[in-house]
Amino acid sequence: MKKESIQFNLFFVLFLSFSIGLQGQKKHKDIEKDFFPFSVWYSGGKARAPMLSAITPRSTDEWTTDLKQIKDLGFNTVRTWVEWAACEPEPGRYNFDNLHLLMRMANEVGLKVFIQIYVDSAPDWVAHNHPHALFETQSGHKVHPQSAPGACMDNKAVEDAILNFYSETAKVANSYPNLFGWDLWSEPHIINWASLNYIPNVQFCFCEGTQTKFRKWLEKKYHTLENLNTAWYRNFTDWTQVEAPRFSTILSYTDFIDWKTFIYEKLVEDMQARYNAIRKVDTTHLITAHAVGASLFQSPHVGAGATDDFLMARPLDYYGVSIYPKHNNPQYAWSVTTLRTVMDFIRSANREKGGWYVGELQAGLGTVALQVSDPVTSDDHRIWIWSAIAKGAKGVNIYAYYPMSSGYEAGGYGLINLDGTITERAVNAGQIADVVNRNQQLFLNATPVKAEVGIVYNPLTQMVGGMQRQDFPGALNQSLIGYFQTFANYNIPVDFIHREHIEKQDFSQYKLIIIPYPIMFTRKAAAGLRNFVENGGYVLAEARIGWNDDRGYASEIIPGLGMHDIFGVREDEIRMRDDIRFTITNENHPALQGFDENSKLTGSLYVQSLKLLDNSDAKILASTGQGQPTIVSNRYGKGESMLVGTYMGMANFSKINPDNDKFFVNLLNWAKIERPFTTTLDGRSSNQVEVRLQDKKDGYLLFIINHSSESEEIGVELNIGSNGTYTVRDIINETIKKAYSIDNKLIINSRIDSKGIHIIELTADK
């Protein structure tokens, strides 16, 4: 469920984390990944999640009727839920009557069951028996739950109770043959479903359990109290004196960085513990969880505890995301760029997993109190669902079957009407489910073509300035999206990659790495970047890379952390400006081909003038209005670097600058990247026709998605590397024809209706 959590707003908040060392966790080799669940959320009756309906003598007939209707629409799975508050009314006494009935009835009608576990609302006995474990704010207030938000898992008694609930649930569900899998955690945070508006800038958790765990984390990092005192500029004489920072000072903010790094690592550990609790009982069924939205839009300043999708995916078989493009107010409906950003970000976070899940997909119009979205239409579902599958999703779960029957979302988010009548969008969603059912193995086994461009997600940058920082909250996500939307609009495959990939030197598939807004960096990442360029890679970094290290300390020379020699320059001067335009000085450089002397590249926030190092061979590509170098490229080892003395990505958000757009695309020429395909409609910044290509064993899977309000004609030219005959199958309409590649290129021409989808399977003839 997409919930407002402690004034958490998906699109105006922003994070960090550090490797948590889960690489050594046990991997289960027999996990069932051979089924594509296409489900709708339903748990019997009309109670809204996470609540459960009371079972009555009529429940069996009523639930069976609903489940048959879900099956008849075309869905192959029902996404049900269990809730701790209702299912363990007394310690150790479990009531899984709802789950038993749902599993049994679903099995009879031929539906698999995907189980969501909720522990964010706790039984009343938890707070009564363990008052020391209540969530505690930085002001010392204890949060006495009103069912939600439960109690803090960092206290062993509560942790044991929560994990036992997971295991006991698994014992019940695992006895049914139609169990498909698990979702451990809906939209993870430290605290959920509670708005403590009476405490300004509320932060969690300052209970003794969390503080004890934090001290152990610090002891593992610093080893001695003396080292901690040096890092934090303190005079502790005993570890028991150490606490998380509650406010900022003018001195060091290393304590803030440590505290927020700990929080993000702790959330991953909590996920791992839940995973292990299920795996104790169930060794084969798929285990997932899903985020509130791409962590690109989250921040360490959110007291509820934001997450890093790349880290949260580690303990799981797949990580998913909630997708609510029309959540509650038409003013905040997602753009095409936002939809693609969220999907591609979560896909990238699951790159090593080979797929990802749509944990929740908005079923109907959204409501939050008096806020009401525009209606969700069949066209919306068609675009949203196929967009996700085109980006490698291996499961779709629509939220929810019935609209919410209570709470501030009452009347919203339903696929059918609350009186049980079927809607047109329910019928059409079922038809999409039917296409997926007929092509299960095709969609499961095809994977998006590998990208050779990586845009670096470095949430550390949001730490600069520490706790008191209030300025430019959208700088990170705007900077990344500014680059991403250009590549997406040109249908160029691109991944988001984590700073940790650079630290681990895990970038073998990439020829070009772009590092937007890189104002905090690590020494390990600097070493990885050096290795990447030395060995033939191309990197573009924006202004002030490595200005601060991961302690919050300023570098003596910028680019920092010794990276100035990679770029062949050092910072000369820095100025903040609102209107930033650079003059091109080297039109022969591959990144500037096609520009003329009147072209202006646009920046944001900073104008950084650069000074070439002694004996530097760096080429000046653009200069400031005062004629000082501000964009340079430099040969280093076998590769090349480019430093851009501003934030061009941020300047390209949300209104696209045509010259910046051209410059970003030209970077492919600079890095010698050959595109796997091109289209006749590449580059549109509105009314986009999106094309996605997937590899399959003996050919390709081509998705054409028309976001335009008009019908469109498009030509797609595939660079397939050989000549031959291909069988062309239209997946939706089930038609077949032949196509022939010439000069190693295969051309597909298509006319596509407004909001239409073409899915074309291309199989090489033997």
Strand order of the largest sheet: 13-12-14-15-20-19-18-16-17
Outline the biggest β-sheet. 9 strands, mixed
Would you report the number of β strands?
28
* Weakly predicted, low-confidence segments: 2-28
- Helix tally equals 19
Rg from Cα: 26 Å
Give the helix proportion (percent range). Answer: 25-40%
Strand percentage lies at 15-25%
Notable features of this structure?
28 strands; 24% strand
Tell me what the structure shows:
- With 766 residues, this protein is an alpha/beta fold.
- Helices cover 27% and strands 24% of the residues.
- It has 19 helices and 28 strands.
- The protein has a 9-stranded mixed beta sheet with strand order 13-12-14-15-20-19-18-16-17, sandwiched between helices.
- Helix 1 crosses helix 3 and helix 5 packs parallel to helix 8.
- The chain is globular, with a radius of gyration of 26 Å.
- The N terminus is likely disordered.
Write the layout of secondary structure elements.
Elements: E1 38-41, H1 59-73, E2 77-83, H2 84-87, H3 97-109, E3 112-118, H4 124-129, H5 156-173, E4 179-186, H6 208-222, H7 225-232, H8 254-279, E5 286-291, H9 309-312, E6 318-323, H10 336-349, E7 356-362, E8 367-368, E9 371-372, H11 378-390, E10 393-399, H12 424-438, H13 440-445, E11 447-448, E12 453-457, H14 475-489, E13 495-498, H15 499-503, E14 512-515, H16 523-534, E15 538-542, H17 564-567, E16 569-584, E17 600-612, E18 619-623, E19 629-636, E20 639-644, H18 648-651, H19 658-670, E21 677-679, E22 689-696, E23 699-706, E24 712-719, E25 724-730, E26 735-741, E27 745-752, E28 757-764
Parallel strand pairs: 1-2, 1-10, 2-3, 3-4, 4-5, 5-6, 6-7, 7-10, 12-13, 12-14, 14-15, 15-20
Antiparallel strand pairs: 8-9, 11-22, 16-17, 16-18, 18-19, 19-20, 21-24, 22-23, 23-28, 24-27, 25-26, 25-28
Helix pairs in contact: 1-3, 5-8, 11-12
